[in-house]
Amino acid sequence: MKIYLDGEFYEKENAKISVFDHGLLYGDGVFEGIRFYHGRVFRLAEHIDRLHDSAKAICLQIPQTKFEMIDAVLATIRQNELQDGYVRLVVTRGSGDLGLNPALCPRPTVFIIASRITLYPEEMYRHGLHVVTCATRRIPHGALSPMVKSLNYLNNVLAKIEAQQAGAGEGLMLNEQGFVAECTGDNIFTVKNGKILTPAISSGALSGITRQVTFEMAAELGIAISEPDMTRYDIFTADECFLTGTAAEVIPVVKLDSRVIGDGVPGPVTRALIERFHQLTETTGTAIY
Ligand SMILES: Cc1ncc(COP(=O)(O)O)c(C=O)c1O
Fold first, then answer.
1. What pLDDT was estimated at residue 118?
2. Residue 13, class by beta-carbon neighbours within 10 Å (0-12 exposed, 13-18 middle, 19+ buried)?
3. Which residue minimizes the CA distance to atom 12 of ligand 1?
4. Is-contact 273 214, C-beta < 8 A?
5. Is the CB of 203 under 6 A from ligand 1?
6. Strands 29-37 and 170-174, how do they pair?
7. Which are the contacts of 130, defined by CB distance < 8 A and separation ≥ 6?
8. Rounded to whole angstroms, how far apart are CA atoms 44 and 16?
9. How many angstroms separate the CA atoms of 257 and 132, rounded?
10. Measured between alpha carbons, how far is residue 181 from residues 29, 239, 270 in Å?
11. How far does residue 21's CA lie from ligand 1's centre (Å)?
12. Contact (Cβ atoms closer than 8 angstroms) between residue 222 and residue 194
């Protein structure tokens, strides 16, 4: 495996960063997870835009332009001769001293890993996931914008641990007001009376790229979509529920906190979206080779 690190490619065992890197010491940095299918990178420009927005919001100057970053992602996949897989792109504040001061980190660290990923077993896409509500709340906007895809994922990690301890496939995260925000690594949607609902970004959700694709697919399919304040009640009483994310794609949810959602099987809207999503990943994207 060849890893991109600050403009050079290294074998996996030689791709090393300093223990003084503030990405490691303080979670000070931003990242993206990007998928490629059949030799094409899905929604690459959108991911690079979000990376730059995340960096701008935390006063981190990415050394590469957006075009250079796109080239670096494509070059990393080419170096590994992959057609299908997952890219992890990370930009940290770089090496400094042991204090917080980011001004002492002269150069951000940029690394790109192109590999494979399977988040959920195939049967979960056919039968649906069980989700539990986590006690750990989503980070409030006033502390750190949930829009920033930062290296501070500890609250999501803690929520994931809760979900795993409960034997669930994903954990539902609420915001400080008790409204639904999202899951630990995915956005959440319901279907009620033929209409799609999803919490607004202001609820504490990440502005997911797959979430945006879902809005586009719903428009194509002529299904109305809205972004109300949502509580667990709205999920308990929904006809269908599904999650979206780069790694998870579109995955059905059939249970929340032991309440069966709808008929307890993936519903027709979810299935139509999964099918359309696969068509999009097969037919669109930035060519790698
Ligand atoms: C907290 C969180 N919410 C939602 C998502 C889904 O976003 P996307 O569709 O851009 O992968 C992710 C994954 O990136 C995430 O980490």
1. 78
2. exposed
3. 185
4. yes
5. no
6. unpaired
7. 167, 168, 169, 253, 254, 255, 256
8. 26
9. 5
10. 23, 19, 20
11. 25
12. no
The model's pLDDT over 155-193, given as tens digits with 9 standing for 90+, comes to 999 999 999 999 999 999 999 999 999 999 999 999 999
Q: What whole-number distance in Å separates Cα of residue 72 and Cα of residue 66?
A: 10
Q: Is 156 in the pocket of ligand 1 (CB under 6 A)?
A: yes
Please say whether the beta carbons of 91 and 108 come within 8 A: yes
Q: Would you call 195 a catalytic residue per the annotation?
A: no
* DSSP structure class, residue 142: T
Q: Find, among 7, 38, 16, 107, the residue nearest to 288 by Cα.
A: 38
Residue 205 contacts by C-beta under 8 Å, 6 or more apart in sequence?
Answer: 138, 146, 181, 182, 187, 188, 198, 199, 211
3-state secondary structure of 49: helix
Options 2, 149, 160, 255, the catalytic residue = 149
SS3 287: strand
Q: Span 64-80, mean pLDDT?
A: 98
Give this prediction's pTM. 0.97
Q: How many CB atoms lie under 10 A from the CB of residue 4? A: 23
- 196 forms beta bridges with 191, 225
Strands (E), 98-233: 109-115, 129-133, 170-174, 180-183, 187-192, 195-197, 225-226
Range in 42-46, 95-99, 117-121, 146-150 with the lowest mean pLDDT: 117-121
Neighbouring residues of 161: CB distance < 8 A, sequence distance ≥ 6: none
Q: Say yes or no: CB of residue 267 within 6 Å of ligand 1.
A: no
**What pLDDT, in 10s, does the model give residues 196-212?**
999 999 999 999 999 99
